[in-house]
Amino acid sequence: xxxxxxxxxxxxxxxxxxAFWDDPHxxxxxxxxxxxxxxxxxxxxxxxxxxxxxxxxxxxxxxxxARVLDLGCGPxxxxxxxxxxxVRVTGIDVSxxxxxxxxxxxxxxxxxxxxxxxxxxxxxLGSGYDAALLVYEDFCALSPTQRAGLLRxxxxxxxxxxxxxxxxxxxxxxxxxxxxxxxxxxxxxxxWAPSPYExxxxxxxxxxxxxVLDRYTIDDGASERQxxxxxxxxxxxxxxxxxxxxxxxPPELFGDLTGAPYDPDGPTFAVVARLPSGTTRGNP
Length: 284
Description:
There is one protein chain. The protein has about 280 residues and is an alpha/beta fold. It has helices spanning about 15-20, 25-35, 45-60, 75-85, 95-110, 145-155, 185-190, 235-245; strands spanning about 65-70, 90-95, 115, 130-135, 160-170, 180-185, 200-205, 210-220, 225-230, 250-255, 270-275. It has 2 domains: about 20-170 and about 235-275, Vaccinia Virus protein VP39 (Rossmann fold, 3-Layer(aba) Sandwich), CATH 3.40.50.150; about 180-230. The chain is built from 8 helices and 11 strands. The strands form 2 sheets. It has a 7-stranded mixed β-sheet. It starts with 16 loop residues before the first helix and ends in a 10-residue tail after the last strand.
C-alpha cells in the first residue's frame, strides 16, 4: 500500500476515543463484537475473559464483598463475571450503548455491580477499592499526560495494598507496524457509518517514540469526521516509571491477564502494581 501523502501529525495532537466509542453507528457494531464469544476486535475472546477472571480472583485474593473498579468496562464482560462471584464492581465507560447493556444484565441477574456512563479520564473514581482494572491495552491509547493523571486518580481510589491491573501494548509490537494509506467506498465493510460513505485510513509511525497513529476519515456526503487511534508501544521499564511516579509500587510482570509468564518478545504484557501498604489514602 502507498504511504500517507498528508504530513505526519504531531504526537497525541488529537484525541477522539470518546467520540468513537459513543458514536451511535460504531457503538452498535462494537457491542456486537464484544458479545461475539470468538471476536477479538473489541475485547478478548470470551474463553480468555473467563480465564482472566479466574486468575484475577486467585491472584488478587478477591473474596466475596471485595470492591473492584473496572475502567472502560464496556458491556460488562469482566464486571459481570466478577460480580457473579460476589465481588462488588463499579464499571465506568463512555459508551451509552455498552453501559445500557451492562446495567440490563446486572439488573436481570441481581448482580452487585453498578455502571456509570463517563470518561474515566474526567470522572471522579471514588475510593476504597481493593483493585482497579484497565483491560484491552487501553493505557496505550492515551498520551503520557493522560496516563499520568489517570494513574494518580487510580492510586487515590485504591485502599493500601490495593492492586492496579492492566495489559499493555509491548515495545516488540512496534517492529511490525508500517505506514500506509488506503481509500475505499464503505471502508471496512460499513463499520464506520451507514452506507454509503467514503473512507480513508492513514497510518503513521513515530520510531523515536514507538508510537503508531491510525487516522480514519469518514465522509458520508453530508459531513466529514475523523477518528484518531494512537498506540504507544511501551517497555516494562517505561510503565514502571509511570506507575512509581503516581505512587504505585514496581509491578509484577506477566504475559497477559491470564497470568501467563512474561515474554520479552511478546506483543503484549500485563502488570499488577500495588499501592504500598503505608500509603495514606488520597495522598499517593
